[in-house]
């Protein structure tokens, strides 16, 4: 591992890493987050991938941390579909539709880079479920390639902004919008097989900014599923989610009426045929920012087959329609 790091990173950087005592933290240099002189700066670590856990998590032996014990590293701002069975044997893996494709692509990138990775973050303390949040890059043909950006360009992960780690948002949301426009992988509405009512052009709208304070008006935040067809659309077993792991599954008997809609409100209430309640303790969808931090989010509708049937990414950055009228 050290010889490979030496050839990629240079002797001086490696010497600095080795100077850390055996019980000390990993050495971290600083550099522009995105490679350009302008823009935010990041902490930088290097390491060797021990294994790819799934489509958004790797185990990495970090150079200079005084141990050969790998750390589980979670990709910044990228959310793969959930893998449920983990194995080094590809044929034994199981998971939601698109999850194994994301894992395979990440393995391909790591292999192409010889297993050496550059890890960057704006805050060393950023983490998700006790896993350090890091942007991960591999060196291919002499250039560092951001694996999260690659996965989004291929439509294999959702864009999931994390508050303090915003340097990548502008690139990632455009990459996701392009994959959605081109119908790649997750955004191919029948990639997982023909789902129910496959011919119905169902649409989805999210009202992410409730009137007043979001925390005081949870039910003012909602997802609306529209059925523009002349036939009723049963959606029992379908589910909506945000870019994190929060999801709401439509209960038995749920039907979107012809030329009608069903709402899922973020908070609690008494359900009716067309107004349902997620029961979340706080707001679900992040509000966008229109500054260099480029925050945003998305809402997604999946059918029981695992196909992503409708979505709304915001703020819109590509082929933007007129703002939908609110209906409640």
Give a verbal description of the structure.
It is a single chain. This protein is an alpha+beta fold and 328 residues long. It folds into 2 domains: 2-187, OB fold (Dihydrolipoamide Acetyltransferase, E2P); 203-314, Lamin Tail domain (Immunoglobulin-like), CATH 2.60.40. 16% of the residues lie in helices and 31% in strands. It has helices spanning 2-9, 11-18, 99-112, 147-153, 169-182, and strands at 29-32, 41-54, 57-62, 71-75, 78-79, 83-85, 94-95, 116-121, 127-128, 131-140, 143-146, 158-159, 203-207, 222-227, 233-234, 239-241, 247-249, 255-256, 260-265, 275-277, 297-302, 308-314. A 5-stranded mixed beta barrel has the order 2-3-4-10-8. Strands 13-14-19-20 form a 4-stranded mixed sheet, with no helix packed on it. A hairpin with a 2-residue loop joins strand 2 (41-54) and strand 3. Helix 1 (2-9) crosses helix 2 (11-18) and helix 4 packs parallel to helix 5 (169-182). The longest helix is centred in the N-terminal third of the chain and has 14 residues, at 99-112. The radius of gyration is 21 Å and the shape is globular.
Short synopsis of the structure:
The protein has 328 residues and is α+β, with helices and mostly antiparallel strands.
CATH class of the largest domain: Mainly Beta
Question: Tally of extended strands?
Answer: 22
Along the chain, the helix and strand elements come as HHEEEEEEEHEEEEHEHEEEEEEEEEE
Distance between the termini: 59 Å
Q: Total number of helical segments?
A: 5
| Rounded Rg | 21 Å
Number of domains: 2
> If classified by CATH, what would the architecture of the largest domain be?
Beta Barrel
SSE-based structural type: alpha+beta
CATH topology-level fold name of the largest domain: OB fold (Dihydrolipoamide Acetyltransferase, E2P)
Profile the largest sheet. 5 strands, mixed, barrel
Helix proportion = 10-25%
The pLDDT mean sits at 90
Bin the strand percentage.
25-35%
Q: Which spans of ≥5 residues are poorly predicted at pLDDT below 50?
A: 1-24, 323-328
Domain LTD: 195-316
Keywords: Signal
Signal peptide: 1-28
Pfam families: LTD (PF00932)
């Amino acid at each position: 591992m050290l010889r490979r790091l030496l050839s990629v990173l240079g002797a001086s950087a490696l010497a600095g890493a080795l100077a850390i005592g055996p019980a000390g933290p990993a050495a971290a240099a600083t550099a522009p987050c995105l490679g350009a002189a302008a823009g935010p700066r990041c902490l930088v670590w290097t390491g060797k991938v021990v294994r790819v856990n799934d489509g958004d998590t790797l185990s990495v032996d970090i150079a200079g941390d005084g141990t050969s014990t790998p750390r589980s590293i979670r990709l910044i701002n990228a959310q793969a579909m959930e893998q449920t069975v983990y194995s080094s044997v590809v044929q034994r893996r199981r998971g939601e539709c698109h999850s194994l494709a994301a894992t395979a692509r990440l393995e391909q990138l790591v292999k192409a880079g010889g297993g050496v990775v550059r890890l960057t973050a704006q805050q060393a303390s950023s983490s998700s479920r006790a896993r350090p949040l890091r942007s991960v890059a591999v060196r291919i043909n002499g250039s560092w390639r951001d694996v999260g950006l690659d996965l989004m360009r291929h439509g294999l992960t959702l864009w999931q902004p994390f508050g303090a780690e915003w340097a990548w948002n502008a690139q990632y949301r455009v990459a996701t919008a392009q994959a959605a426009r081109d119908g790649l992988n997750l955004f191919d509405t029948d990639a997982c097989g023909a789902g129910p009512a496959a011919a119905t052009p169902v649409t989805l709208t999210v009202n992410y900014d409730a009137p007043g304070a979001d925390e005081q008006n949870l039910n003012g935040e909602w997802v609306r599923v529209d059925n523009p067809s002349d036939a009723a659309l049963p959606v029992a077993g379908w589910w909506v989610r945000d870019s994190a792991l929060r999801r709401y599954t439509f209960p038995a008997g749920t039907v979107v009426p012809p030329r009608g809609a069903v709402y899922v409100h973020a908070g609690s209430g008494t359900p009716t045929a067309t107004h349902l309640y997620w029961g979340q303790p706080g707001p679900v969808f992040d509000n966008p920012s229109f500054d260099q931090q480029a925050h945003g989010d998305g809402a997604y509708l999946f059918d029981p087959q695992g196909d992503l049937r409708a979505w709304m990414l915001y703020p819109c950055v590509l082929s933007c329609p007129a703002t939908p009228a609110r209906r409640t």
